[in-house]
Amino acid sequence: MKMRAAVLEDFGQPLSVQEVDLEEPRAGEVLVRLAACGVCHTDLYTASGADPSGYAPTVLGHEGAGVVEKLGEGVTELAVGDHVVTLFSPQCRECVHCLDPRTNLCLAIRTEQNLGHLPDGTTRLRRDGEEIRHFMGCSTFAEHTVMPEIALAKIDPEAPFEHACLFACGLSTGLGAAINTAKVAPGSTVAVFGAGMVGLGAVAGARLQGAERIVCVDLSEDRLELARGQGATDLLAGGPAATEAILEMTGGFGADYTFEATGRTDVMEQALEATRMAWGLCTVAGVAGKGETLDVVPRLLITGRRLAGSSFGGVKGRDQVPVLVERYLAGEIDVEPFLSHRITLDEVNRGFELMEEQDGIRSVIAFGWGCRPGGGGGGWGPPPFVQSLAVHGQSAGDSAWRQRPEAFKLLGSGTLPAFAGEARCSKEAPAESSSRRRLE
């Protein structure tokens, strides 16, 4: 079939929106018509040439949501018409990692996916007979995509596509870092460094876990206000003094849990230094640049601090993304503030520009169906959380959830199972911290 897609031809150059060929799904694969797709920093990271594992030509995009249109042979758990979220981190439910609750890093198709192939070692994307590789197994900057069944999460059709797509990467990564990787304990103190999509998700995840105090650190006042809306109790301007400020706020001890969501190695070091001695846990969710390393003072670890990494928030996608979407529909997660700009496929490069300008949290591509202008897809309406605040004359940025905890009562079995992620540690010359003497 012919379709339009945004192709990365050369690193460091704008994407080219053009017509390409998409072959039929083969055994174990599914054809998905995309309705919405987030423009994520990982897409920009690869397009820029900074990603050491990047390749071209390829169709970028991985934060997708849409509807199943056709099934390949042997597909049993999806049906035509199902609403799905794309998963760059698949879940086969059979490999040694999928069967182990400690990780979400499925091994089934990892090797071929990293090469830009589908599981059988080939691609479904072509242009004039030339092979075009798949990006992260997804390639969602396109009107359609073909993906393995094991890399699609079936979701409630009531979830608007332009909100659901954010659970395909950034939002789930932040939520899962707090819920799965760190397993934030009720009544604890949390510090989140970075108020982008992942950091805001970590703030929301810490709130859902029952954290008593949530400190958010960022350079942007606008983003800090968004963090307040997700449950942050304290806001701090980013910079070298942030660690010292957190220590002072916690009686010199530091936070029980810290999260790094910027990808900057100097901030990773700050997050570790701001973690409480004896039992503090620092979770790194940001991805650093090629060749960077992390400088860690060993004594910080010897005195009880722990450092962990989190890939996709430890979320086992097919099982847990639908649960996170249900929690959103139940009013526990406010997604609309994350959606800063609604754009078309032809405006995909503008999405990158907005990201580089730090204008908003997420630009979402709407493909002209399933999403209303300025609104949602499957079923639409503000989630109950936002509706309730409107009734009481408050905005989603207010901390009304603290006065009205019943609005956030966890459904079903409560918190999600805990799974670990992977560490991605990198280095940049760190700013000297005056807090190191106190911590050592």
Report on this model:
With 440 residues, the chain is of the alpha/beta class. It folds into two domains: 2-154 and 336-366, Medium-chain alcohol dehydrogenases, catalytic domain (Quinone Oxidoreductase, Chain A, domain 1); 178-311 and 420-439, 3-Layer(aba) Sandwich (Rossmann fold). It has helices at 41-48, 110-114, 161-164, 170-181, 197-208, 221-230, 242-249, 265-273, 298-302, 317-329, 348-356, 384-391, 400-403, 436-439, and strands at residues 2-8, 16-22, 29-39, 58-59, 63-71, 83-86, 125-127, 130-134, 144-148, 152-154, 189-193, 213-218, 234-237, 257-260, 281-284, 306-309, 339-343, 362-366.
Secondary structure tally, helices: 14
Radius of gyration: 21 Å
Low-confidence stretches: 373-440
User: Which whole number gives the mean pLDDT?
Assistant: 87
**Which percent range fits the helix content?**
25-40%
Notable features of this structure?
25% helix, disordered C terminus, 14 helices, 6-stranded parallel beta sheet, Rossmann fold, alpha/beta, Quinone Oxidoreductase, Chain A, domain 1
